[in-house]
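Bumping my old thread because nobody answered last time. Still need a sequence for this structure:
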């Protein structure tokens, strides 16, 4: 059966934790040179990567990850192939399915990635759309899991715009229990997607709150999280947004409203002095570079899950057997 990753809809809490455990294994493998050289579960496989938007972390982490797993990445600029203009989405999907083993796409319209997945016979991975950014949130949640900070009462406070990154945090909250708070301006244009919010609320897995006072929202936070105030495609609104979002900056004062030892996260790129101050971004409570690095490890784990599920299952079976053996010998 073909598996896609467009968001968290097809995962449950157990499957997400399984993916995190495999990501820990993948990360450990990379540090052990001999193991990394021998571990090539994507040998002979190719992945087409479509980029309609500028990219640094997403492009580098996917390309390096595919290479390290033994596969080959084909980079396609969205403008050059003319997604949904020069060529119909369904034609692109079917053609790439004949050449490749998966498609990674970073696009504007979410409907296009849905159409790609509908018409492709190979896995399609959402590497960002205007609606969501699930690979980023996988890496963020994994980073907290890796550091022993993840539990069903961890309070993650997103300060800023109810954008695609916030939407994916909310989608995750519909699957994996935790306390999520979005602190954003009251205007409707800065609220998260209502359908994602409604669907996450139906599952009742987490406490999900929308607030408008960042100081109140930050109280007792374990994690303060932010993103740029002006996303790609919104450049004409920059001055307006800078004025509206001034109270939503993560700075030393706001960090003092959170729990002592709270960590600070940012999906990057960051504009120091706007959504976050440099002293906080580069300070001892920041784990921004850790989450950026973990994009590589989580996406490698995701690629193996989608393209070599037998290898993925074998790891978890071995993992479970080792746990049982460990309990029996205590």
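Sorry it took so long. Here it is:
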């Amino acid at each position: 059966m073909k598996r896609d990753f467009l968001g968290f809809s097809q995962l449950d809490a157990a499957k997400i934790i399984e993916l995190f455990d495999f990501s820990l294994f993948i990360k450990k493998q990379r540090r052990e040179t001999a193991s990394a050289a021998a571990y090539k579960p994507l040998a002979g496989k190719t992945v087409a990567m479509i980029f309609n938007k500028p990219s640094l972390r997403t492009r580098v982490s996917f390309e390096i990850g595919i290479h390290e797993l033994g596969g080959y990445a084909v980079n396609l600029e969205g403008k050059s192939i003319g997604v949904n203009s020069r060529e119909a989405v369904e034609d692109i999907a079917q053609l790439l399915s004949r050449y490749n083993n998966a498609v990674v796409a970073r696009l504007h319209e979410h409907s296009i990635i849905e159409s790609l997945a509908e018409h492709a016979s190979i896995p399609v991975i959402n590497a960002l759309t205007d609606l969501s950014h699930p690979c980023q949130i996988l890496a963020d949640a994994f980073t907290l899991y890796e550091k022993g900070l993840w539990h069903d009462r961890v309070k993650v406070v997103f300060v800023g715009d109810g954008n695609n990154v916030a939407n994916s945090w909310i989608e995750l909250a519909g699957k994996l229990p935790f306390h999520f708070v979005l602190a954003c301006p009251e205007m409707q244009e800065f609220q998260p997607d209502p359908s994602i919010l409604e669907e996450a609320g139906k599952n009742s897995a987490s406490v999900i709150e929308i607030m408008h006072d960042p100081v109140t929202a930050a109280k007792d936070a374990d994690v303060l999280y932010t993103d740029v105030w002006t996303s790609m495609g919104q450049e004409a609104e920059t001055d307006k947004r800078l004025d509206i979002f001034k109270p939503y900056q993560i700075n030393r004062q706001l960090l003092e409203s959170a729990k002592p030892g709270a960590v600070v996260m940012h999906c990057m790129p960051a504009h120091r002095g706007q959504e976050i101050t440099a002293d906080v971004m580069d300070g001892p409570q920041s784990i921004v570079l850790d989450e950026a690095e973990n994009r590589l490890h989580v996406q490698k784990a995701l690629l193996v899950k989608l393209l070599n599920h037998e290898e993925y299952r074998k790891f978890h079976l071995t993992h479970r057997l080792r746990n049982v053996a460990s309990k029996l010998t205590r």
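The chain has a mean pLDDT of 94. Let me know if any region looks off to you.
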